[in-house]
Design goal:
Helix content: 25-40%
Structural class: alpha+beta
Number of helices: 9
Radius of gyration: 16 Å
Number of strands: 5
Oligomer: single chain
Largest sheet: 5 strands, mixed
Strand content: 15-25%
Length: 191
């Protein structure tokens, strides 16, 4: 949300709202786009979109991106992470449940300290994430699959970045069987 106005939720085209947002005006952007194999949704995983997010965020702001692990494979997941890491210097990845991969990106390191623990409780995130097996702040921290240093190493291994002009993610994922998924053991092997 915008400083002083509290958190806000918009049910509009998020990308259009970002373009209209003033530079350095947002504390956080949360993106839970449709599945990337659906027409048009892959544009919310591109270098250009991530650049718009970065432009709209304050230097201390955070971007949260949900990525499904179903109808997904290793190469496209690596491309999403590599693209995000190209735009943001600090990216962390969390596995919230067997189908959800959460990427947190920012200009500064993610520090999960007592202040964040307190804010986690104030926002009621424990109740929100409990159905996903997250029983509190410590469980959330333990779900971190990849820290910023690991993301940089992974990003360097994938030279392909996702861009608006080529809906590669959409094209590649639609070809996967519906039952395809990246499992926890495959994530462990990747990272």
């Amino acid at each position: 949300g915008q400083r002083g106005g509290g958190a806000g939720r918009r049910g509009d085209d998020g990308r259009a709202q970002l373009v209209l947002a003033a530079e350095d005006s947002l504390d956080a952007v949360v993106s839970q786009p449709s599945h990337p194999w659906l027409a048009g949704a892959s544009a919310l995983y591109t270098e250009e979109f991530f650049g718009e997010v970065k432009r709209a965020l304050r230097p201390s702001g955070t971007f949260a991106l949900w990525v499904n692990l179903f109808r997904m494979s290793e190469a496209p997941l690596r491309q999403i992470i590599a693209t995000l890491a190209h735009v943001f210097p600090h990216v962390n990845a969390f596995v919230i449940d067997r189908s959800s991969f959460i990427l947190l990106a920012s200009e500064s390191p993610l520090i999960l300290d007592e202040r964040v623990r307190q804010r986690y409780g104030e926002l009621g995130l424990s109740q929100l994430l409990a159905p996903r097996g997250q029983q509190g702040f410590d469980t959330f921290v333990a779900s971190r699959e990849l820290d910023a240093a690991g993301v940089v190493m992974l990003g360097l291994a994938s030279e392909t970045r996702l861009v608006d002009d080529l809906p590669q993610l959409e094209r590649d994922l639609v070809r996967l069987p519906i039952a395809a998924r990246v499992t926890r053991s495959e994530l462990d092997a990747m990272f």
